[in-house]
Backbone:
């Protein structure tokens, strides 16, 4: 019983850290965007205010059970990803689920939420939502290819499919996989563009085109849960990348530096990009990113 | 009299009784039908264990039937899914014409499948294989339209496969002097190399047709979608597994014995992978649920073929586990489609929308089986997918794993299309009258959905019989080092512990479900799907804003180059070529006596001229 | 704890503060005033530093910004959009046209006084109001929110019959779902 309580406590603490860091990143994103556009921009804590305001909205509507539960599905994915990914290396306080699942499991649990959320978006009956969902699923097929190529390259090079195993490899050899498997890193970072859905890949929720797509009918508390889930997921994904390619992090400070450095890549790329069409986005991912992924596999076979 | 004899007798007698009792009373017919599927199933699982044998002498040839652990596993699929589909069929066929015809062929199909699984000699194997083909052909043309195109296509492919198999059987008999499978397998290493290659190829041709392997799959989409849905669930779920069953035996007992077998298995594994990818792409394109599921079946069978063709223990476990899962979820999905067809009269996504609030139980069954199909934890499909990937990665199939991964990610597109097309979207006045399907149809679907859920966390339930089946085929025991009751491992020692994952998923989901419901409970309200934010417009009652025509258009544009070629067209090309050849040959027969005289003279002259060379 | 008067006050204060600093605007570009929104949002005037940000759909928006004259046809849509927004919600009337009809005071197909049809919280006058004026309008709305006086939605609910009567007088074919918050 005590162990269960401790597990739950660990999950809650991890969740809160991820929530705060993810929200802050969202705020910094808006701040950086503003500075690049020569604006003052909102304060860095703007996203917290937005989230609180959304949660304090007095009324809410839903179009049915799936729409009502859509955010919960999304949250399952975010929190499960967060629990599976080791947040800090040598972390004996809150092991969460670090040793219970491997990379393939992670890939699949990451699709659980989007599908549930897509069902919620579908039930609204808003055509914009359905269009957004089809775009999102199509783009997922696009960016999963380089992402899987990179992961498979890592797996076959180091003969392990677990995240902790790959972290141990880096701790053992002393070099980050970013340097020992550079092509895999490039392919994975390019896939990250698709995961974050910033420009030029913001085809899913294109505000001016689709009226924010899947979340067109979502407001108030539902949007609050989605926003939190998005923040947690941002942190979880970045932590996963840091664990896989940047050697993990011993304490929170280093983790934040590394994740933020990684976060800047899609962010800065988005600032200078317009929006792709869906098929262009898919083909972009099947072009250079997949090429680098294949190089990574070649490297893994040869060396 | 052995129990196996009794089972076959019940099947046969039940089929005939069911057919004729329809003349007396419809209810009696239903009862006879249910009894002649459920009673043998009960008898089989209660009294027939592995190791039982029975013989039957027929005009000098002794037919031998027996059960081992491997065929017991497939019997589980056939009889389990068969019983569920039989219960479902009662509801589905209510009020339809030619029930006796349908029931008769349904029972015969199940009997034939059991016969295939229990056959030890090749003669009874072939006989039951033909009965299976015939009965499924007759159900395929049940609807009576497009017999020319669909029925003939299915029948021609089946016939090609069956004659290839018959040829192989005759050659084997010529070489060994026996019809027993074991003697064929024992003699196999002593054959000449060309025989060692041709005999498996001929067998695989037959099995590949039934398993809808590329490029022999063209019959499947039409046949699956044209048969009544109650039958298609066993057609796709169980009957196609007969091909898998045969393939496993051929691959394990024959091809693995020779050094060239490696390339053989590579080719089949790649064919499986390409089948999966192409099937998925075509499934995304379909606007009809039956067609979509049919192509999806082709794709899923591709995964299974890949798994068993790799031939490692994990690959075998993955393939066979996926086979069981496929029987469950695809059986359920075809049943769902059937239920919707029964309630609305159409299965076209462009016509029917927004059934979720009218058919909630059907939706739950569909949702769970779609999650299983997509391979998303915590349902059973994930276990099979995980094992497949791990077996591919650990056995150095780097590019194949990408192909498989591509197709299983692209599968989300048609998964969503299926759920969205039927259940989500705007609720229309046209379908306001639709009611939930009768309980006799819903209950089997829900039972299978629950089974998928249980298998997702405790795959050991089904991995145990798979393991003992594989041990019968000569694999080593993989318990504890590849699987436990709720842990799955790969050969590198990485694992997924399913139980805590399930509890966490449920815990998180329930927590946020309560949060969303409890927070502002009084000020949250349901609004209809007409009350959407579409630029301030209020859609009229007859105005349908659901987006369903050209649903995956952007994706289809992106993959358009891969879909330009259709295998169907090549087959049509061959058929056209053959037709013109025959047309040319026909011209020889002019019907004029003088021409024939000239032929004779020319022939004699040629013989005289080339006498020295020819003789 | 929620029933306690003082703690309710504190909660209200925090909530109002958050609402004040996070204003998601649904800019309903009804008239020519819509042209003043881009400069307000972009680099020169940067409304985002006040927490003002565009929202794509009424479900997510806090503020309905009526930019300019409203034709009778558009009014129906605007009412629909307003009713789809979630509580608490505010309306800003933008430009002279929303106050008294402005230069369209004698037009046959625009409405003159927006307040008769929707509960306007803040008016911004001018034809056109410059971005500075728009920002000052937002600042005024923020002040009202912080003071808890921006309760147009409550007013609309209380006087629904009066509003409905006015709306139906103008809009001939009234086919709309009921407003039942």
Residues:
């Amino acid at each position: 019983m005590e162990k269960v309580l401790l597990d739950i406590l660990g999950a809650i603490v991890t969740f809160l850290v991820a929530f705060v860091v993810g929200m802050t990143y969202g705020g910094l994103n808006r701040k950086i965007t503003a500075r690049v556009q020569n604006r003052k921009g909102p304060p860095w804590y703007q996203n917290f205010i937005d989230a609180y305001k959304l949660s304090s909205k007095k009324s809410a509507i839903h179009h049915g059970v799936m729409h009502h539960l859509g955010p919960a599905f999304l949250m399952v994915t975010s929190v499960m990803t967060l629990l599976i990914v080791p947040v800090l290396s040598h972390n004996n306080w809150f092991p969460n689920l670090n040793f219970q699942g491997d990379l393939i499991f992670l890939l699949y649990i990451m699709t659980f939420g989007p599908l549930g959320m897509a069902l919620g978006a579908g039930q609204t009956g808003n055509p914009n939502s359905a269009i957004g969902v089809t775009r999102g699923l199509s783009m997922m097929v696009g960016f999963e290819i380089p992402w899987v190529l990179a992961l498979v390259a890592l797996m076959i090079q180091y003969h392990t499919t677990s995240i902790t195993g790959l972290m141990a490899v880096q701790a053992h050899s002393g070099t980050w996989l970013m340097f020992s498997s550079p092509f895999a890193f490039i392919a994975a970072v390019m896939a990250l563009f698709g995961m974050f859905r910033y420009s030029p890949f913001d085809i899913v929720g294109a505000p001016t085109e689709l009226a924010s797509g899947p979340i067109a009918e979502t407001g108030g508390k539902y949007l609050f849960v989605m926003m939190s889930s998005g923040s947690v997921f941002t942190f979880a994904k970045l932590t996963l990348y840091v664990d896989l390619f940047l050697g993990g992090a011993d304490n929170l400070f280093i983790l934040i530096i590394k994740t933020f450095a990684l976060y800047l890549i899609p962010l800065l790329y988005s600032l200078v990009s317009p929006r792709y069409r869906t098929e262009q986005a898919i083909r972009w991912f099947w072009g250079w990113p997949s090429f680098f992924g294949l190089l990574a596999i070649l490297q893994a076979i040869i060396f | 009299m052995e129990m196996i004899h009794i089972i076959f007798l019940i099947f046969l007698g039940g089929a005939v009784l069911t057919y004729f009792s329809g003349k007396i009373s419809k209810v009696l017919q239903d009862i006879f039908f249910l009894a002649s599927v459920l009673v043998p199933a009960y008898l089989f699982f209660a009294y027939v264990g592995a190791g039982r044998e029975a013989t039957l002498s027929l005009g000098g040839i002794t037919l031998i039937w027996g059960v081992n652990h491997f065929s017991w596993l497939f019997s589980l699929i056939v009889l389990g899914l068969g019983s569920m589909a039989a219960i479902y069929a009662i509801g589905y066929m209510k009020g339809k014409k030619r029930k006796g015809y349908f029931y008769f062929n349904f029972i015969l199909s199940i009997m034939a499948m059991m016969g295939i699984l229990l056959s030890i000699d090749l003669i009874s194997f072939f006989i039951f294989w033909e009965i299976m083909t015939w009965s499924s052909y007759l159900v395929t043309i049940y609807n009576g339209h497009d017999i020319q195109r669909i029925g003939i296509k299915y029948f021609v492919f089946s016939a090609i496969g069956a004659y290839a198999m018959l040829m192989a059987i005759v050659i084997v008999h010529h070489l060994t002097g026996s019809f027993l499978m074991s003697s064929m397998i024992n003699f196999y290493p002593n054959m000449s190399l060309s025989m060692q290659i041709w005999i498996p190829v001929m067998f695989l041709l037959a099995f590949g047709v039934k398993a809808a392997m590329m490029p022999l799959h063209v019959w499947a989409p039409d046949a699956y979608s044209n048969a009544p849905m109650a039958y298609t669930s066993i057609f796709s779920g169980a009957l196609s597994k007969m091909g898998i069953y045969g393939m496993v035996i051929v691959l394990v007992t024959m091809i693995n014995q020779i050094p060239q077998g490696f390339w053989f298995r590579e080719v089949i594994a790649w064919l499986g992978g390409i089948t999966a990818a192409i099937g998925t792409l075509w499934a995304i394109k379909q606007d009809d649920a039956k067609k979509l599921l049919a192509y999806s079946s082709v794709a899923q069978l591709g995964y299974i073929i890949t798994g068993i063709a790799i031939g490692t223990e994990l690959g075998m476990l993955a393939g066979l586990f996926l086979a069981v899962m496929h029987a469950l979820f695809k059986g359920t999905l075809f049943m769902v489609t059937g239920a919707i067809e029964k309630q609305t009269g159409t299965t076209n996504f462009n016509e029917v929308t927004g059934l979720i609030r009218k058919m909630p139980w059907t939706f739950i069954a569909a949702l769970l089986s779609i999650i299983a199909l997509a391979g998303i934890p915590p349902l059973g499909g994930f276990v099979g997918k995980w094992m497949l990937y791990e077996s591919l990665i650990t056995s150095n199939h780097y590019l194949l794993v990408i192909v498989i991964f591509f197709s299983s990610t692209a599968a989300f597109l048609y998964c969503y299309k299926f759920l969205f097309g039927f259940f989500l979207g705007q609720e229309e006045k046209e379908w306001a009258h639709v009611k939930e399907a009768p309980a006799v149809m819903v209950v089997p679907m829900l039972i299978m959905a629950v089974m998928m859920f249980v298998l997702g966390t405790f795959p050991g339930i089904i991995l145990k019989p798979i393991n003992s089946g594989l041990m019968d085929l000569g694999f080593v025991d993989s318990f504890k080092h590849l699987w436990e009751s709720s842990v799955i491992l790969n050969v590198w020692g990485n694992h997924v512990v399913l139980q805590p994952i399930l509890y966490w998923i449920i815990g998180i989901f329930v927590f946020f479900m309560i949060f969303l419901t409890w927070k502002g409970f009084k000020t949250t309200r349901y609004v209809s799907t007409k009350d959407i934010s579409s630029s301030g417009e209020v859609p009229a009652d007859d105005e349908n804003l659901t987006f369903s025509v050209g649903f995956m258009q952007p994706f289809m544009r992106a993959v358009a180059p891969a879909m330009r070629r259709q295998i169907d067209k090549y087959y049509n090309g061959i058929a056209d070529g053959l037709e013109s050849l025959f047309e040319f040959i026909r011209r020889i027969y002019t019907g004029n006596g003088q021409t024939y005289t000239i032929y004779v003279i020319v022939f004699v002259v040629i013989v005289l001229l080339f006498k020295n060379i020819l003789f | 704890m929620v029933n306690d008067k003082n703690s309710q006050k504190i909660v209200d204060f925090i909530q109002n503060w958050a609402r004040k600093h996070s204003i998601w605007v649904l800019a309903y570009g009804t008239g020519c005033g819509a042209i003043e929104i881009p400069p307000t949002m972009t680099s020169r005037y940067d409304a985002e530093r006040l927490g003002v940000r565009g929202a794509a759909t009424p479900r997510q928006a806090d503020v309905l910004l009526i930019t300019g004259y409203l034709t009778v046809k558009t009014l129906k849509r605007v009412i629909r959009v307003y009713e789809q927004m979630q509580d608490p919600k505010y309306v800003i009337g933008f430009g002279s046209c929303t106050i008294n009809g402005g230069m369209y005071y004698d037009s046959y197909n625009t409405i003159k006084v927006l307040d008769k049809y929707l509960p306007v919280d803040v008016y911004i006058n001018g034809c056109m109001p410059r971005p500075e004026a728009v920002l000052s309008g937002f600042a005024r709305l923020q002040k009202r929110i912080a003071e808890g006086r921006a309760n147009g939605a409550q007013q609309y609910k209380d006087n629904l019959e009066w509003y409905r009567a006015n709306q139906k007088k103008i809009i001939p074919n009234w086919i709309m779902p009921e407003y039942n918050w």
Remarks:
- The longest strand of chain A covers residues 60-62.
- The two ends of chain A are 48 Å apart (CA to CA).
- Chain A touches chain C through 31 residues (CB under 8 Å).
- Chain A is about 75% helix and 0% strand.
